[in-house]
Amino acid sequence: MMAVEAPYGRKTQVAPNIDEVHILWITAGLGCDGDSVSITAASEPSLEDVVLGAIPGLPKVHLHNPVLAYANGEDFLQVFHQAARGELSNFVLVLEGSIPNEKLSGDGYWAAMGTDPATGQPIPTTEWIDRLAPKALAVVGAGTCATYGGIHAMKGNPTGCMGIADYLGWDWKSKAGLPIVNVPGCPVQPDNFMETLLYLLRQLAGVAPMIPLDDALRPKWLFNFTVHEGCDRAAYYEQADFAKEYGSRKCLVKIGCWGPVVQCNVPKRGWIAGIGGCPNVGGICIGCTMPGFPDKLMPFMDEPPGARISSFLVKPYGVLIRNLRKITNHTLKKEPKWRHNRPQSTTGYRPDMPEKTHPL
Ligand code: SF4
Ligand code: SF4
Q1: What is the largest CA-CA distance in the chain?
Q2: How many angstroms separate the alpha carbon of residue 285 from the centre of ligand 2?
């Protein structure tokens, strides 16, 4: 380990130089594989650029993801068994899907990957995490299910589901000294995930300082502003011009948008190649990047409680300003009166007038 000055002003640790790294990606939490599908759309950087070594300064990357792999069955699992036996020193563990904690949910298991050659029994996802996390250089949660539990971890669920930091502990550190890194989203925004992975790979290569994370363990540069602050419709909010139904181009707060209090860069970044981004294209923000999702944001499609106050308070200001702007806009749509086709100039210019007192 060596200490370096981080760009945000504090000394921190980076791992030793590493020139080859395996990414062991487990999709066997409870989920839909949507995060694996999502990252195939990334372009900043693309998955292909990372695994084909097109980006200078990165370690050589070997990706092992069941959705994107050529190998299957025991062939695919070999590298996971190797890592669990301690025969693979440089790997990053990526978790996708909610983690059903069988210690809470009782007998049996809810999710597993492969079978144990010794017992012939399925290997539960939690068993893989127990075996692999202590040996990993970094542990990353991809998507809301893996990071905070998501829909599977709702009140009343029988599975004991939770996110990776709930399972390992919020203060958990990898053998390289890295905290858990959470990249939430349902699914994860493709470039958010790949940019975070790129950062970690640079850190493991010894050329980047400790990844800056917020208190929900999300990369700060991606999650430190709200949906509302980046929304294409924010001007409608400021003018108290609210949609009453879907299909409107106005602010969606009264039909259920939580954007003013949710941290997510999707309206700014778009979804694929800069295009899309929930409220920009007519979808209310349901707060899927937040640790409280979904319970604390339900019922969806109702006006959020805080929005009732703010949209009520903004109304007198917004309506007045909107009408004043209409007057100004009307004025601006007319050319100045001295632009005409009459024979005399009426600009007010007088060649005999001293320069200091000239109206122009
Ligand atoms: S649609 Fe949502 S995020 Fe956009 S301005 Fe309205 S409340 Fe804010
Ligand atoms: S804008 Fe809201 S719903 Fe859309 S990805 Fe971000 S947090 Fe989720």
Answers
A1: 104
A2: 5
Q: Cβ distance 256 to 303 under 8 Å? A: yes
Is the CB of 290 inside a 6 Å radius of any atom of ligand 1?
no
User: Looking at the CA of 189, which ligand is closest?
Assistant: 2
CATH topology of domain 2-222: Rossmann fold (3.40.50)
Of the listed ligands, the closest to the CA of 190 is 2
Name residues contacting ligand 2 (CB within 6 A).
185, 227, 262, 264, 266, 278, 285-289
Query: What gap in Å lies between CA 160 and CA 154, rounded to an integer?
Result: 10
Q: What is the pLDDT of residues 206-228, one digit of tens each?
A: 999 999 999 999 999 999 999 99
Phi-psi region of 277 (alpha: psi -120 to 50; beta: other; left: phi over 0): left
Q: What percent of the chain has pLDDT over 90?
A: 86
* Average pLDDT along the chain: 93
Whether the CB-CB separation of 98 and 29 falls below 8 Å is answered with yes
d(CA 148, CA 277): 22
Residue with tokens 């049996």, as numbered in its chain: 108
The domain spans of the chain are 2-222, 225-336
Of residues 23, 29, 27, 31, the one with CA closest to residue 288: 31
Measured distance CA(232)–CA(303) in Å, rounded? 19
Query: Which residue has the least CA distance to atom 7 on ligand 1?
Result: 253
Of the candidate CATH numbers 4.10.480.10, 3.40.50.1580, 3.40.50.300, 3.10.350.10, the domain formed by 225-336 belongs to: 4.10.480.10
